[in-house]
Write a structure and sequence with these properties.
Length: 295
């Protein structure tokens, strides 16, 4: 599993990007809904009313327009709002992500401001020129002043970009941007399903020969080999033998042909190949494996 957080400029196209990746097969968690659901929790609403008064309520429930007006009035109120909803939002998102596999994508506008970005394996920042963001936010009733009022409490754009793994600039050429979004999405899908498979050989020479076949044919990005002592059941008997263990890193696409290659070239009647899907691995390492083996 690879957890990808999508953040970026107000009105830059974050939701559009998430929708593109959902169409590719990514699992999507609605972080905005998770944040809004915090306001239905009695303890959150009670604290908010205690600070802002019952003017933030409409028919006994949260009035989001009024809450936004209060929260974005100054930095202290903004920090207070974050302290109310961010802990519960992050906890709910983590619970939802734990039930998914493969590529898991969340759109989180205030990712860095929440201080909770350390749980994300990969961060994508969506940027766009100010003029285009103003046009896109017109449907919300937000003009340049409202966008500036909200963003003045957020971390600087250049700092957030520097902390992100990738930046997608939505600068007006929608076809080019969508193509770049799909290309990155396909790579992330492959990174989310990288596998490590293992097999043992009787001799070091056999292990080295198989490793060369796998790497040279781009079926594995690398093969680690080391000596082991094995005890195993085989045809009714217990055997103790020195062996050479091979640990091989491959993509989901290359895994099946890699195992077929091992079976076809291994001296054992049963090579005993096992595989596991990697999770929470270094993104740069996952990207290297994908580049070596292909998405």
């Amino acid at each position: 599993m690879l957890t990808v957080a999508v953040t970026g400029d107000v009105g830059a196209g974050k939701s559009h990007l998430v929708n593109i990746w959902a169409s590719l097969g990514a699992g999507v968690i609605d972080a905005d809904s998770a944040a809004k659901s915090q306001w239905s929790k009695p303890e959150v609403l009670e604290r908010a009313v205690g600070r802002w008064g019952d003017g933030i309520l409409r028919d006994g429930t949260a009035d989001f327009r009024e809450i936004s007006r209060r929260a974005f009035s100054d930095e202290e109120e903004y920090r207070f709002m974050n302290s109310l909803i961010h802990p519960g939002t992050v906890a709910d998102i983590c619970r939802a992500a734990a039930s998914l596999r493969g590529l898991v994508v969340l759109e989180i506008p205030l990712l860095f401001e929440s201080g909770a970005f350390d749980w994300a394996d990969y961060i994508v920042y969506v940027s766009a020129p100010d003029a285009q963001r103003i046009l896109r936010n017109a449907a919300r009733g937000w003009g340049a002043e409202e966008i500036a009022r909200r963003e003045c409490f957020m971390a600087r754009r250049d700092e957030k970009m520097a902390k992100s793994n990738a930046v997608l600039a939505n600068d007006g050429d929608i076809d080019r941007w969508e193509a770049a979004s799909r290309e990155l999405g396909m790579k992330l899908m492959a990174m989310a399903t990288v596998h490590e498979f293992s097999v043992c050989c009787a001799t070091r020479e056999d292990a080295q020969r198989l490793a060369a076949l796998l790497v040279e044919n781009r079926l594995a990005a690398c093969v680690n080999i080391w000596a082991v002592e094995s005890r195993y059941l085989w045809k009714g008997g217990i055997h103790d033998e020195p062996e050479w263990h091979m640990s091989c890193k491959a993509t989901a696409r290359s895994l099946r042909p890699a195992m077929e290659c091992v079976r076809a070239n291994h001296p054992y009647e049963l090579p005993a190949i096992t595989a596991v899907e990697l999770s929470r691995s270094d993104p740069a390492t996952l990207e290297w494996i994908v580049d070596c083996c292909g998405a």
